[in-house]
Write a structure and sequence with these properties.
The complex is a heterodimer of chains A (325) and B (348).
Chain A: E1 6-16, E2 21-32, E3 37-41, H1 48-55, E4 63-72, E5 75-76, H2 82-88, E6 93-96, H3 100-103, H4 110-120, H5 126-139, H6 156-167, E7 174-178, H7 186-203, E8 206-211, H8 214-217, E9 223-228, E10 231-237, H9 238-243, H10 248-254, E11 305-307, E12 310-312, H11 318-324
Parallel strand pairs in A: 3-8, 3-9, 6-7, 7-8
Antiparallel strand pairs in A: 1-2, 1-4, 4-5, 9-10, 10-12, 11-12
Helix pairs in contact in A: 4-5, 5-6, 6-7
Chain B: H1 4-8, E1 17-27, E2 36-47, E3 52-56, H2 63-70, E4 78-83, E5 86-87, H3 94-103, E6 104-107, H4 122-132, H5 138-151, H6 168-180, E7 186-190, H7 198-215, E8 218-223, H8 226-232, E9 235-240, E10 243-249, H9 250-255, H10 260-268, H11 307-311, E11 317-319, E12 322-324, H12 327-331, H13 341-344
Parallel strand pairs in B: 3-8, 3-9, 6-7, 7-8
Antiparallel strand pairs in B: 1-2, 1-4, 4-5, 9-10, 10-12, 11-12
Helix pairs in contact in B: 4-5, 4-6, 5-6
Classes of the chains: A alpha/beta (325), B alpha/beta (348).
Chain lengths: 325, 348
């Protein structure tokens, strides 16, 4: 396999609170190949946004990376100085935030915000700025005339797409997206997703896409990571997860959305809510909500087992992994 | 009366709430501006007792304006709303308004912004009880608060919590409990699950179905997610740019959508098992309807548009057991076919 574009190994992030340390990301490892589309799925509070922030080196106190490495194109980002990071941001990797609708400056036109970014990285001739801005805006399907528009003049979907345009100003190799579609309605969501996929395929950048709605990424991602309580619960190819999800939590997530075809069946959802990470449950962190809980689950902490081409953290597969390995 | 159209798609029986020709325009700019935004135009709706009706459309289709008109946050520019055959216009006194607000309760989209953070969540429930059910004494109010909390699936311990101590799903349940406390006949739920995690949504949707069974309330469920509408609603009403475009029994409409817009909405629902090829590459949005001329408001996005669509505004007309506002579909129902609908909406 080729050298991965991004390699995250044993990443651990703590939030230091007065009384307790909250471990939001707990020894997470994964890699992203050039041009790959990776989906990260989990409920609110599972640490998926913290993970992204840690990867993008955007954590601010009280959040702190307490262990692990983030290797992007050969250099360990955790150790890079702020100055070196500033040069890489936007140019080598960019981040599209969850509230991209509000991430734009309301006092500046879209074009002026593009110009700021371009000039900060040395593209300063007026003509170059104008051409590149118009180019990326039309890439995401917005008329270049909207460079003069202010954010409030655009709809939610258009604001989100212009954020993505901004992320593509330098055609970075990695675009990190934190729930960019969650504030949009279903139609806008689909059109945004197919746009992102088109661009990813034509421009060849890699995407890390975080969402709580498995059905959003399912049609677009190559691989998927399901996170629960700061840990990887399951990681596998998207098709594999959808055809035979191994972890009971992945199954629960898949049964949570209603379908428009087939018989109307009662949705289970997942009972209960995600654990408080200041006091995570003993043993398997999912056991209080798990429909397949066994006697050993509350006491034995499962490892991330390699079975059937996937990585899964569930004691159901402990034996199988033993035999295989 | 123009309301006939609205009723023919509804099951027989006297409607709990009926709106006819409901219209709301907003003036843009100054007092003398001539620019009128048509948020809702000639909209008919009927909700029966113990019925869950889903109002479906994209952002900007006017569905929240309908909810606010029904909740009397806005008053209609034109048209009438009848609740139990009393015209809302005739309700003027404080006593009448209190009566109406006791019969029709609202649940809001944002469970994070809907509660006062300095009060325990019991505060809202208690206040509605004091206001709307003065016959209860303090002890009875407490019992009643416990009852409504239990009926939305929360433990009575939760009454003592502050909003920040609860998850989004729990808060949304408190919203429903607060609405239930006044013993309403109708709950207007404006996108109650769209801000919740997918894993929590199913629980809230199931709770809505239970409320109808146990408390006998009707629910107007406003959503952009047509799949969740299928899950709970008896009937769907699809809106586009302030107009009703299609309405009928949920299964009829969803299995065989007749209006091209309904087909577009359905094609946007992500079905994980489907391959990329069948995705609608439509990137249009509902237009801002300012001083509109005649014509179908969907025609710019419609793959079937004909000349007539630009000249004559289609009105909802019966097609089988449903109403469809589309010249092409009504004249030739097979022209706009549903099975092809999923693929025919893709950009070719």
């Amino acid at each position: 396999m080729a050298e991965p574009l991004l390699e995250v190994s044993d990443l651990t992030v703590d939030y230091l609170a007065d009384r307790a340390t909250v471990r939001a990301v707990n020894h997470v490892s994964f890699s992203v190949q050039p041009g790959e589309f990776l989906g990260i799925v989990g409920e609110s509070g599972c640490g998926k946004s913290t993970l992204l922030f840690a990867v993008a080196q955007l954590l601010s106190p009280p959040g702190e990376i307490s262990g692990g490495k983030v290797t992007f194109r050969g250099s360990d980002m955790v150790r890079l100085a702020a100055d070196a990071l500033r040069h890489m941001r936007w140019r080598d990797y960019s981040v599209v935030m969850q509230s991209a609708m509000n991430a734009l400056n309301p006092m500046k036109s879209i074009g002026a915000q593009f110009k700021d970014t371009l000039q900060a990285h040395g593209r300063s001739s007026a003509q170059e700025v104008r051409e590149r801005s118009a180019e990326v805006l039309s890439l995401v399907g917005i008329d270049a005339a909207h460079l003069q528009s202010y954010p409030h003049q655009l709809s939610g979907g258009m604001r989100q797409r212009s954020m993505i345009a901004m992320a593509l100003l330098f055609t970075p190799q990695l675009v990190i997206m934190d729930e960019p579609t969650s504030a949009l309605d279903v139609v806008a969501q689909q059109s945004l997703m197919s746009k992102v996929k088109d661009l990813q395929q034509s421009l060849g950048f890699a995407v890390i896409f975080v969402t709580h709605d498995m059905s959003v990424v399912s049609r677009y991602s190559d691989r998927m990571i399901v996170m629960y309580a700061g840990q990887i619960a399951e990681a596998a190819g998207t098709d594999a997860i959808f055809e035979r999800p191994l972890h009971p939590y992945s199954r629960g997530l898949m049964d949570a959305f209603p379908s428009i075809r087939g018989p109307r069946r009662r949705l289970g959802g997942i009972p209960g809510s995600p654990p408080n990470l200041a006091r995570p449950p003993t043993g398997c962190r999912f056991h209080p909500r798990c429909p397949e809980v066994m006697a050993t689950c509350p006491t034995t902490e499962p490892e991330l087992y390699n079975v059937r081409g996937a990585r899964v953290r569930c004691l159901l597969y402990a034996e199988e992994a033993d035999h295989a390995g | 009366m123009a309301g006939q159209a609205g009723n023919s798609a509804a099951p027989a029986g006297e409607a709990l709430l009926r709106a006819t020709n409901l219209t709301r325009h907003f003036r843009l700019g100054g007092m003398f501006s001539k620019r009128m935004l048509h948020a809702v135009d000639d909209f008919d709706l009927a909700i029966q007792e113990r019925e869950i009706v889903a109002l479906v459309g994209e952002s900007g289709s006017g569905k929240s304006t309908v909810a606010r008109l029904l909740a009397r946050v806005y008053s209609p520019t034109r048209g009438e709303i009848y609740f139990r055959d009393r015209a809302l216009k005739s309700l003027r006194s404080r006593k009448d308004m209190l009566w109406y607000r006791g019969e029709v309760a609202m649940v809001f989209q944002d469970p994070y912004g809907a509660f006062n953070p300095v009060f325990r969540v019991s505060h809202g429930v208690m206040r509605s009880l004091v206001l709307h059910r003065p016959e209860l004494d303090r002890h009875q109010r407490r019992e009643e608060a416990k009852r409504v909390f239990e009926s939305v699936g929360l433990s009575t311990e939760m009454l003592k919590k502050f909003p920040h101590e609860m998850s989004g799903g729990e808060r949304q349940r408190v919203g429903f409990a607060q609405a239930l406390a006044v013993r309403p006949k109708l709950i207007l739920a404006d996108e109650p699950v769209s801000m919740l995690d997918v894993s929590i949504r199913a629980g809230v949707l199931n709770m809505m179905a239970n409320l109808r069974e146990q408390e006998g309330v009707s629910i107007l469920y406003i959503t952009h997610d047509i799949a969740s509408a299928r899950y709970v609603a008896d009937r769907v009403v699809v809106m586009y740019a302030g107009h009703l475009v299609e309405t009928g029994a949920t299964e009829d409409v969803l299995q065989e959508p007749k209006h091209p817009y309904t087909q577009l909405l359905l094609s946007a629902v992500a079905d994980p098992r489907e391959k990329l090829a069948s995705i609608a590459a439509d990137s249009g949005e509902p237009p801002k309807v300012i001083n509109p001329s005649e014509g179908c408001r969907f025609r710019w996005r419609c793959p079937y548009a004909i000349e007539k669509c630009a000249d004559v505004t289609p009105r909802p007309e019966p097609l089988g057991s449903r109403l469809v506002a589309c010249h092409v579909a009504v004249a030739n129902p097979d022209r706009v076919t549903n099975s092809a609908g999923r693929t025919s909406m893709t950009k070719s």
